[in-house]
């Protein structure tokens, strides 16, 4: 079996976790602060605020920027649902703009067509580890005075030119086990704005700076020292893992590029894609899936349904059509690309995919 994702936990993680367990200081404490400082440095931001999940980081980001009822937040319909739900959490309205078919990320032109006087923020998602078109999205945000919150939950270490993702606005990361690095559950908010960082720290911890003094309404959205210990060990390895992900993706694409009915992932010019997922478009996905299963190759469909078509959003009255996102959800297929794959694994994946088109893909 070749799994679609595999968290890599080594001796460093184990040693640091045991050290925390034996220290008696388990919840948010010195390890969380150390993880925040190292992550900020690594991500190229001035401040980092650790949270209990990527979803929590998004929630905190919207609250810290004072986005609430009456506000519209433009985001992508083609992502994990948290990218949009964070707007609902604060009483704002998610507005969906369609995606660029080549990169599966928010289309700046479509965003422009969704602007209203109520638009307060943009949440671009660096999907699969591919940086969004931040040059155009940031220009749009700038022109219209919009807050930029980058959902970098799949894009730790991705760059556009020399600039790391997350450097355009407030950014949110996830450390769920399938992500490019993990703390089991966990997240991080990064920003260059001291005031946003301070508000985020308060919101994550019951609005409290000093024990039992509560300045504002907050939540318990803290990371623990136990999780931060894992994160510190992972942070030291994530660059090497990302490099391996890129190499695995390049190898897969070199072998899969000429198969009729398959479109390997495009990389945005100038971008460093960190391949959280290696996602192809497949003309006849249904024909390929059984073949992968038979050979024990894990796969994922990210995502089988656009957010605007989820029952939750249908129940909220979302009825518009977003053709590019809807088409992508019918065609995408993610194959394993994670750094634990061996050369034999990669060849096995390629062989399974190559075996299909002649028999199964129409028009080939
Ligand atoms: C994983 C993910 C999230 C949420 O992160 P959690 O840590 O699972 O809460 C948000 N947005 C995107 C794009 C994600 O992939």
Short overview:
The protein has 14 helices and 13 strands. The protein is of the alpha/beta class and 364 residues long. The protein binds pyridoxal-5'-phosphate (PLP).
Keywords:
binds pyridoxal-5'-phosphate, 14 helices, 13 strands, 364 residues, single chain, Aspartate Aminotransferase, domain 2, disordered C terminus, 7-stranded mixed β-sheet, 40% helix, 3-stranded antiparallel β-sheet, Aspartate Aminotransferase, domain 1, 2 domains, alpha/beta
Describe the structure.
The chain is of the alpha/beta class and 364 residues long. It has 2 domains: 11-235, 3-Layer(aba) Sandwich (Aspartate Aminotransferase, domain 2), CATH 3.40.640; 239-359, Aspartate Aminotransferase, domain 1 (Alpha-Beta Complex), CATH 3.90.1150.10. The protein is built from 14 helices and 13 strands. The protein has a 7-stranded mixed sheet, sandwiched between helices. Strands 7-6-11 form a 3-stranded antiparallel sheet, with no helix packed on it. α6 (134-144) links the parallel β4 and β5. α3 (54-64) crosses α4, α3 (54-64) crosses α7 and α9 runs parallel beside α13. The chain is globular and about 65 Å long. Residues 358-364 have low confidence and may be disordered. The structure holds pyridoxal-5'-phosphate. Pyridoxal-5'-phosphate (PLP) is lined by residues 53-55, 79-80, 82-83, 125, 151, 153-154, 174, 176, 187. Pyridoxal-5'-phosphate binds at residues 53-55, 79-80, 82-83, 125, 151, 153-154, 174, 176, 187.
């Amino acid at each position: 079996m070749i799994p679609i994702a595999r968290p890599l936990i080594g001796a460093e993680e184990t040693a640091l976790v045991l050290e925390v367990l034996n220290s008696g200081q388990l919840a948010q404490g010195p390890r969380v602060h150390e993880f925040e400082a190292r992550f900020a440095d690594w991500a190229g931001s001035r401040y980092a605020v650790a949270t209990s999940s990527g979803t929590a980081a998004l929630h905190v980001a919207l609250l810290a920027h004072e986005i609430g009822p009456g506000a519209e937040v433009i985001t992508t319909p083609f992502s994990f649902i948290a990218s949009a739900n964070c707007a609902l959490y604060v009483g704002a309205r998610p507005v969906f703009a369609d995606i660029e078919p080549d990169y599966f990320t928010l289309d700046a032109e479509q965003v422009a067509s969704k602007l209203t006087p109520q638009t307060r923020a943009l949440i671009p998602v660096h999907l699969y580890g591919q940086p969004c078109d931040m040059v155009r999205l940031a220009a749009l945000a700038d022109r219209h005075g919009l807050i930029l919150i980058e959902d970098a939950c799949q894009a730790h270490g991705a760059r556009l030119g020399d600039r790391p993702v997350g450097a355009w606005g407030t950014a949110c990361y996830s450390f769920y086990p399938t992500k490019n690095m993990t703390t089991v559950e966990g997240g991080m908010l990064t920003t260059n704005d001291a005031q946003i960082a301070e508000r985020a720290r308060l919101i994550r911890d019951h609005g409290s700076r000093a024990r039992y003094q509560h300045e504002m309404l907050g939540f318990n959205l803290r990371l623990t020292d136990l999780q931060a210990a894992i994160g510190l060990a992972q942070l030291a390895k994530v660059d090497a893992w990302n490099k391996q992900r890129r190499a695995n993706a390049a190898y897969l694409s070199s072998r899969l590029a000429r198969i009729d009915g398959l479109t390997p992932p495009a990389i945005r010019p100038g971008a460093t894609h960190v391949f959280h997922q290696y996602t192809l478009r497949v003309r006849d996905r249904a024909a390929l899936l059984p073949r992968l299963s038979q050979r024990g190759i894990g796969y994922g469909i990210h995502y089988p349904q656009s957010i605007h078509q989820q029952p939750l959003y249908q129940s909220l009255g979302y009825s518009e059509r977003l053709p590019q996102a809807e088409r992508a959800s019918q065609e995408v297929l993610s194959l394993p690309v994670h750094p634990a794959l061996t050369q034999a694994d990669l060849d096995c994946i390629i062989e399974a995919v190559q075996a299909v088109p002649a028999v199964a893909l129409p028009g080939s």
